[in-house]
Amino acid sequence: MPGRDAVIVGARCAGSSLAIALAREGWNVTMVDRDEFPSDTISTNLIFPNTVSRLDQLGVLDTLLTNHDVPSLGFRIIGFGHECAGGFTPVDGFDKLISPRRIALDNAMVETALAVGVNGRFGERVVELIGSGTSEDPVAGVVLEGGEEIRADWVFGADGRASTVAGKLGIEKSNPMRGEVAYLLAFWRGIPNDGYATSDIRDDAILSSWAAEDGVHLLTAWGDPEFTRGSKDELLPKYLDFLKQFPETLDQAALANAEMVSDLIVAPETLMRGYFRQPAGPGWALVGDSCHFKHPGTGQGIGDAIEQSIHVAEGVSGKDPYLSGYGDWLNGRSLQQYPWSYAWGSFPKSAQQFVGWATEEDAAQDMRDSFSRQVEPSQVLTKDRIERWFSTA
Ligand SMILES: Cc1cc2nc3c(=O)[nH]c(=O)nc-3n(C[C@H](O)[C@H](O)[C@H](O)COP(=O)(O)OP(=O)(O)OC[C@H]3O[C@@H](n4cnc5c(N)ncnc54)[C@H](O)[C@@H]3O)c2cc1C
Is 384 helix (H, G, I), strand (E, B) or coil? Predict the structure, then answer.
């Protein structure tokens, strides 16, 4: 129904992709974010080919690649010394992942949204909703910190884990999950890009290493929850020492000459706990982390946010005008991926699956393609593979 008004709270990957998709359907969209852009947010930034294709369809990829040099990368997993590496089965011609920092990606998304006519209100905070969100009193707009009201037919919460929209509606988290790992990460200059996003996995430590954009490189150290406890002054030597423990994966001569160009970024285990929230009701809906969070170990948050936004925009524009099917669609997409993310967000107990992926190319391809959502996790660790690999352990 063209000409209707939407307010979106949050303008990063969920908010901007929803804004673009709604604007293309003819909606008048106002997007409010307390942050100004460009600005960064915590992430390891993996974007798999299915989402690269979505960025292309939304017009964001063009903007991103016009502004930045973003290398395309294959995917390498080394588990207990057993290595498999390769690309992905192409999705609309894209067979590699990318990993631009959010300061680059989110800005490209915001820029693209503004270019298709979205009204951006940045550096402004939503503090209240108009309407309680019941069928008698649907949500009908938002109130900004200064008291200004913006009225709309729909209000969308794309406002992240601590969603104000969900909070004001009293929507609780459900179905919690937690992993076993915590991250210390930082961006570097001077680490050569070997063309792969690599994770070197041991039973109590994991190093991830990949190129971001414009010659910047991300090095992430995964440890147990205790690993990230302490002040940044205490954690920095721990992080630097960790990087020296992986000489086969990380060129130590390059590391010695490289420069750390960001602060040390701390992602405690508690930040990576999963949940669902009821995603829609009268006059309101949630997209992105506000409605569902899974472990970042499978790098699905950005892609999920964009898929949800496209689904919701198509729904409210006619296919599912009250979003009554949105919750089931969300649960269906997450059924296998949610626990799979927490399996990758825990330390492996056995080398056998890595041996399997290192020796059976079709199995390694299935594993990579589960990250780009071309196969379900149950097709990766099939009964046959589990019996074969684990019975020879
Ligand atoms: C350590 C870590 C690593 C990760 N790595 C990956 C990865 O490799 N790949 C991947 O796909 N995902 C990854 N994720 C997940 C990914 O970062 C999130 O899923 C993604 O950021 C969700 O986007 P969003 O737009 O929903 O929320 P956010 O990015 O959190 O954006 C929410 C926006 O809402 C704004 N906002 C909030 N409240 C208000 C308010 N009241 N008024 C106005 N504005 C408001 C905020 O300022 C913010 O800009 C990672 C997450 C973590 C924690």
Answer: helix
